[in-house]
Amino acid sequence: MTTAVLHVLVKRTFPAREALRTLAVDPSLVTAWKQLAAAAGVDKWALASAIANELGFEAPGSLKTSDPFAVQLLPESLAREHFVLPLREEAGMLIVACAAPHDENTLQRVKFVTNRALKILVVPPDELEWAIVDAYARLSQLQANEIGTLFWTADGKFAGNGATGEHALVQLARSLLMEAIKARASDIHIQPFSGGGLVRVRVDGVLQRLAFVPGAVLHALLRYFKAQGGMDPTNDRVPQDGRMSLVLGSHDYDLRLSVLPASRGERLVIRFLDQNRVYKLSGAGLSTAAMQSLRKLGANSSGVVLITGPTGSGKTSTLYAMLAEINRTGVSIITVENPVEYRISGISQVEVNAKAGLTFASALRSILRQDPDIILIGEIRDAETADIAMQAALTGHLVLATLHTNDALTAIPRLIDLGVHPSILADALAGVVAQRLFRKLCVACRVSVREPLRHDERLFFELTGERPAYRAVGCGACRGTGYSGRQPVTEIVEMSPALRQQLAADHTDLAKLQDLTKGPLSSLSHGAAMRVISGDTTAGEAARVVGQRFWSDLAREFRRALPASAVGVLTPEEGSQTGISVLLFEKHSAMTIAVTDLLGKASIKVHATDDPSAARDIIEKDENVALLVADIDVGTERENLEALLRLRRALAWSRLPVMLIVPSKENATQQIVKDHGVSDYLVKPVTPEIIVARIQAMLAR
Known about the structure:
CATH architecture of the largest domain: 3-Layer(aba) Sandwich
CATH topology of the largest domain: Rossmann fold
Radius of gyration: 33 Å
C-alpha cells in the first residue's frame, strides 16, 4: 500500500496549500494521514470528508459499532493489513470503513473475499485501528461464550445455529426482550401473580405492565432464562445471579439476571446494559451551567469528585461521561467497579470480587502502584475505601466516586462518619454532585397548561409565581404515559476557600455550611423547578423525583409561605391530590359551608358533623384526615367541657391534632385547652377567613 497516491489525491483536493507540494510523505499510512492533515490545515475527519468527496464516497461523523456477522466475513489479518473493517449489511450491500479508499486493489480483494457489493466509508487510519481491535475482540468473545449469548438480526430474528430458534418458549423470550428494547426499558420484572406470571418493564424509571403469562409458562420461562444466564435452572430455593449477552444486529447488550425465591414462586429481574451507548456530557441533557461545572471539576489534576444519589439516579452514567471528556492517549485511567457495567475503550476496568478477596480497598491499594492519573471508584461504602480515596487525592490523583446520600452537602458528614478527618476532607475534596433523573414530557402530545389548574400546577404557581409550561397527556408514542425519555437534574457544591476553611477548622454544622453554598446549582429543587418552567417536565414529576421536600424547598427559596395543600400526596400521572382532609366538628351550617368553600379552593377536603360517633366513622374511612377542628359552643362552660370530653373519648385513638373554636377566653376555657391536648384555639367572634388561615398554618407546620 503506497501513500504516494494518497499524497497526489490530497494535493488535488487542496490545490491552494503550498505545504502539500513539498511534503515528504511517510510510508506509514497512519503517519501519512497526520502529515497530510497538518499540511492541508484541517483535522483528520475533515480530511476524510474531503477525500470521500473527491472519490465519490462517504465519510461518517464517527465509527458506529460493527455487526459481528459482518465482521466475520473478512479475516482479521486482512482487515489489519489494509485498514478495512466491515460494519454492517444494508440493502444487499456491505458497508465497509476504509482508510485507503484510493487503493483499488484493496477494494477488489475485500469484495472478492466477502462476496458482497461494497459501500465505502472513508475513515482516518488511527481511528480505524482502534475500531478493528475492538470489533474482532468482541467477535472472539462472543464466539467463546456462544452458549450464554443470543444472536439475533437487527429486526429480532434468530440468527444462531440449530433449531432452537423455532421453539415456542424461545420465541416468547425473544418477544419479551424485543418489546423491552423497543420500549427503551432498563429492566424486565417477571414475578408470580394470581396463578400466573406478570411481566413488567421499567421505562424512564417507572414500571409498566407488558404481559401476563400462564403459570406453567412462567416456570418454563424462568428456567430458560436461568439456563441462559449460567444459573442452576433446577434450584428454586436460593437467590441466584447470572449474566448473558444479546447481539441484536450491530447492538451488543449485556444482560444482568437476578432470581429471588418468593412466597408464591421465583421472581426474575433482567437489567439491560447497552454496550453501544456513547457517553458525553454534551448529550446527557444537563443544564448548560451544570455541564460547565462538571467539566471544571473533571479538569482538576487532583482531588475527590463525588456523585451522590439513590440507585437508578444516573450516577454511573455521569461519571462515565466525565471520563469520556478526559479519556485521551496521555492519561492513564483505572476504574474499580462492582460490577463493571459498561466497557470503555482505553480504560482499565477492575471488577470487585469479594469472594476472591478483591474488594474496593484491596483493589485501590494495587491500583495506586499502577501509576494512574485518574481513578474511578464505583462506590465508597466503608472507612478503608474512603481513607484510600482521600490519600490518593492528596498524592496527586483525580478520584471520581459515588456515595449514597440524599443531597450533595450531606456527603461531608457521611465521609466524616466513615472516619475521614475534616482537615483531610478540606484538602482532598474538590466537589460533590447530587443527581436525580426526571421524566421528560412527550413532545408529541404535551399541551399548554390552562385553567382550571391542577393541584400540583396551582401549588407550583403559588410558590414560584410562575405557571408550569406544559402538562402530560399521553399518546401512542409515549405508551400513554405522557413522558418520553429522562433528563438529569443536579445539585453541585464546589469546594470554595470559605468552605475549605470551615472544614479545616472542624466546623461541620450543616446549617452553617449550607450558607456557604448558595448558588443556582446548589439545590435539586431549584433545578427541577427551572425545568418545569422551561416545559421539560411537570411539577408533579418534579415532586415525585425530588420528594415532598420539593415544595418546602421552593417555599424557602422563593420566600413564600408553604400552603397547607403541599402536605397532600400527589399522583404525578394526573397531577391530582389524594389528600389532605380536615374534620370540622360544628353544628352551624353557614360556617360549615363558608369554611368548606374556602378550603376547597386550596384543594383541602372538609368533612363536617356534630356527632362524635359519626366523626369516628369519618376518620376510619378517610385516612387522609390530618386535623380536627371543633366548635365547642353548646351552652355553659360545664356543658362545653362535657361535649369536648365526649369528642375526646371518641377520637382519642386517632391522635390527631385538635384546634378549638371557643366562645370566650375565660380561665375555664384556657384550662380546657391545657388539660385536654388541644394544639391551638380561636376565640369567637371569628370569621371563616380567619379559621381557614389558622387551619392552613397548622397543616403547614
